[in-house]
C-alpha cells in the first residue's frame, strides 16, 4: 500500500501558460510525487522522466541482447490476439487495423526482410493477463480517475502495450477524451513531436481537419517540440497537447491514458465543445424528438464518451472520495491510497465541476434521470459540509 499526497492544500488549478514553455528532463529516481504533481500535472506541461522502468519485470523478460525477446513473447503470449495497424494503409486519417496472433506478429518482427510496416498497438495485455505483473504504475501517475473507475466497475481500461518496428508511427492526434497520457519505453527509441494547446489550429485545413503528419517545412510558423525518448524513459503528455510519434528503433512501450482533478475541468470543456459542434452539425433536426439522443450517440462516436457517462464517472469518484475522507480503507487506483490534502483537493475540484454541470442545459432541461440528479445534489451537499 503506497500513499500519494501533496504537501499543502490546493484549491484551484493555476492558469496554464505555454508561451515560454520548454520540455524538462528529470530523473525518476529522485522525483517526488508532490513535485511532479505541482510542476507538471497542475501546470499541464510535458516532461521526460529518466530511469522509470529499471525494476520492472518486463525490463528483464522482454529484452534480449538489447533488443526484443521474440522467443519470450511467442512462448508467453503467442496464442493471444492483438490489434495490429498497417502504417502503409490509411482510412479516414487512421491506420487500417486487423487482429493477429502475437506469435505471428513476432515472426513478422523478427524477419529483417519485412514487406509491410505493421504496428501492434492498443493491446490490453494487463487486462488479459492480470496476474502477469510485467510492470508497475509509477507513483507519479497514481492519481488516475479513468482507470480507477474502469477497475472499480470492471469496465474497459486505458492501459496498453505498443510494439512496433523501426519506422512505424502514430498520426498527429490528441488523446482520447483530451486526457493526459504517459508512455514508458521498455526497449527501443521514439521520436515525439508535441504541440502546445492552440498550435494545432494553425495546422487545420478549411474543413477543420489536421494533417496525417506534421511537416515543419509546410508550417513554418507553428511552435512545436521534438523529443527523443530512450529505453527506460517515460514521457508525460498533458491535456490538449497534440502529438505524433515515430519508432526510430524496434520499440516496446507501455502507455496509459488518465484523468484526475487537475484536468477534469478541461475534459468537461472539451466534451461541451464537441457536443456544441455536434448540435450545430445537425441543427436542422433540433425540433425532432430524437435530437438530444442522436446528439449523444454522435458525441460518443467523436469524443469517446457521452454526457451520461461523464456524469457517472464524476458521481463514482465523488462518492468514493467522500467515503475515503470519512476513513474508508479504499484503494484509489492500483493499490494506491490518498492523503488528506490530496482528498481535499479532489473534493474542491469535484464540487466546482458539479456546479458547472448543474448550469448545463441538459441538466436544467431534465435530461438526467431523477436518480442521477439526486446523486449529484447529494454529493454537492456532502462535500460542502466536509470542506466547511
UniProtKB/TrEMBL annotation:
<dbReference type="GO" id="GO:0005737">
    <property type="term" value="C:cytoplasm"/>
</dbReference>
<dbReference type="InterPro" id="IPR003347">
    <property type="entry name" value="JmjC_dom"/>
</dbReference>
<dbReference type="InterPro" id="IPR050910">
    <property type="entry name" value="JMJD6_ArgDemeth/LysHydrox"/>
</dbReference>
<dbReference type="GO" id="GO:0005634">
    <property type="term" value="C:nucleus"/>
</dbReference>
<comment type="similarity">
    <text>Belongs to the JMJD6 family.</text>
</comment>
<dbReference type="GO" id="GO:0045905">
    <property type="term" value="P:positive regulation of translational termination"/>
</dbReference>
<dbReference type="InterPro" id="IPR041667">
    <property type="entry name" value="Cupin_8"/>
</dbReference>
<dbReference type="Pfam" id="PF13621">
    <property type="entry name" value="Cupin_8"/>
</dbReference>
<dbReference type="GO" id="GO:0016706">
    <property type="term" value="F:2-oxoglutarate-dependent dioxygenase activity"/>
</dbReference>
<protein>
    <recommendedName>
        <fullName>Jumonji domain-containing protein 4</fullName>
    </recommendedName>
</protein>
<feature type="domain" description="JmjC">
    <location>
        <begin position="126"/>
        <end position="275"/>
    </location>
</feature>
<dbReference type="GO" id="GO:0043565">
    <property type="term" value="F:sequence-specific DNA binding"/>
</dbReference>
Amino acid at each position: 500500500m503506497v500513499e500519494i499526497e501533496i504537501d499543502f492544500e490546493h484549491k484551484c488549478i493555476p492558469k496554464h501558460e505555454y508561451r515560454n514553455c520548454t520540455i524538462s528532463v528529470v530523473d525518476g529516481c529522485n522525483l517526488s510525487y508532490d513535485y511532479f504533481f505541482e510542476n507538471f500535472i497542475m501546470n499541464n506541461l510535458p516532461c521526460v522522466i529518466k530511469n522509470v522502468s529499471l525494476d520492472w519485470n518486463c525490463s528483464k523478460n522482454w529484452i534480449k541482447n538489447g533488443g526484443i525477446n521474440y522467443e519470450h513473447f511467442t512462448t508467453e503470449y503467442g496464442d493471444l490476439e492483438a490489434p495490429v495497424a498497417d502504417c502503409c494503409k490509411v482510412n479516414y486519417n487512421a491506420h487500417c487495423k486487423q487482429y493477429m496472433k502475437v506469435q505471428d506478429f513476432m515472426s513478422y518482427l523478427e524477419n529483417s526482410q519485412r514487406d509491410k510496416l505493421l504496428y501492434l498497438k492498443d493491446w490490453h495485455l494487463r487486462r488479459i493477463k492480470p496476474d502477469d505483473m510485467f510492470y508497475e504504475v509509477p507513483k507519479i501517475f497514481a492519481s488516475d480517475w479513468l482507470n480507477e473507475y474502469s477497475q472499480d466497475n470492471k469496465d474497459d481500461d486505458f492501459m496498453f502495450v505498443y510494439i512496433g518496428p523501426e519506422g512505424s508511427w502514430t498520426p498527429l492526434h490528441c488523446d482520447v477524451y483530451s486526457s493526459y497520457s504517459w508512455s514508458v519505453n521498455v526497449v527501443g527509441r521514439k521520436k515525439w513531436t508535441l504541440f502546445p494547446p492552440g498550435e494545432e489550429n494553425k495546422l487545420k485545413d478549411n474543413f477543420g481537419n489536421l494533417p496525417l503528419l506534421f511537416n515543419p517545412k509546410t508550417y513554418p510558423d507553428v511552435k512545436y517540440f521534438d523529443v527523443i525518448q530512450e529505453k527506460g524513459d517515460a514521457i508525460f503528455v498533458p491535456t490538449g497537447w497534440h502529438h505524433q510519434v515515430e519508432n526510430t528503433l524496434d520499440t516496446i512501450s507501455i502507455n496509459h491514458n488518465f484523468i484526475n482533478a487537475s484536468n477534469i475541468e478541461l475534459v468537461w470543456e472539451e466534451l461541451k465543445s464537441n457536443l456544441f459542434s455536434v448540435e450545430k452539425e445537425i441543427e436542422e433536426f433540433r425540433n425532432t424528438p430524437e435530437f438530444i439522443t442522436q446528439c449523444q450517440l454522435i458525441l460518443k462516436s467523436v469524443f469517446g464518451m457521452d454526457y451520461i457517462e461523464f456524469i457517472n464517472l464524476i458521481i463514482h469518484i465523488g462518492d468514493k472520495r467522500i467515503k475515503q475522507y470519512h476513513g474508508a480503507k479504499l484503494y484509489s487506483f492500483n493499490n494506491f491510497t490518498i492523503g488528506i490534502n490530496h482528498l481535499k483537493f479532489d473534493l474542491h475540484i469535484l464540487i466546482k465541476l458539479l456546479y458547472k454541470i448543474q448550469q448545463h442545459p441538459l441538466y436544467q432541461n431534465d435530461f438526467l434521470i431523477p436518480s442521477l440528479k439526486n446523486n449529484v445534489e447529494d454529493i454537492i451537499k456532502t462535500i460542502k459540509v466536509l470542506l466547511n
